Amino acid sequence: MKRLRMAVVGDNCIDKFLPPIGEALVGGNAVNVAVQLAKLGHDAHYFGAVAPDADGERTRTALIENRVDVAHVQERPGKTAHTDIEVLSSGERVFLFEDFGVCAGYRPSDADVAALKIMDHVHIGWLDDGGALRRTLAAAGVSVSQDISVNADPANLGIEGLTIAFGSAGEDDAAVETTIGRFLSAGVRVAVVTRGAKGSVAATLEERAETGIRQVGVIDTTGAGDSFIAGFLSVHIGGGSLQEAVEAGRDRAALACSHVGGFPQKPTAL
Q: Which of 37, 66, 99, 129 would you call most buried, defined as having the most Cβ atoms within 10 angstroms of its Cβ?
């Protein structure tokens, strides 16, 4: 496997799993992707913000322990983000409350942007910048992807300039095809759409690949989508085929469903 220099920009949070689990773990879309890329053997760099509190220190420590570079983590006044999560008996999770804390309003510095421009690939998680970073990196010719499913605000949902766009369309075939068509018609080179229990599809203007899910005993689906992204990027940016990439994403997502949280770690009690 080719070792790549990969950056992930955006959110982090403390995932608070309500009773009966009663545990708190480090998570967030961008953090989960960064950790999974590092676990896959890449030079992973996280760009985001934490507060000068215990949760901020815990987040930074978890990244370092998982071999993610934190040189570009900003410390901002306020509170580290947190999310209250209920896990159903099926393993599906319900987000009951989200406080984006110091992630809200975070922007990479000029020095951060300069560092991002020399990466092999940059993935953007939740980022409320109206697409400014996406446009800047695209204009500089940087390979960049984003998961548009994690942003609910229409101002942050743009896809123009993305090399790879990730989205979720559920199990409705028409919605999947509509999403793929929308991505490709906007100039995205690779459209990747997850389909719940039906698996995932990736498409370019010339090629299409798809796979189902890998059956596992599901404990918790938190971070499964982020793990899929990391698996897909690891293979696709490394030069693998589109089919190999969706299968790598599938396998990484299945592994994430086998434990609580976005990646294995020692939890703390609520």
A: 37
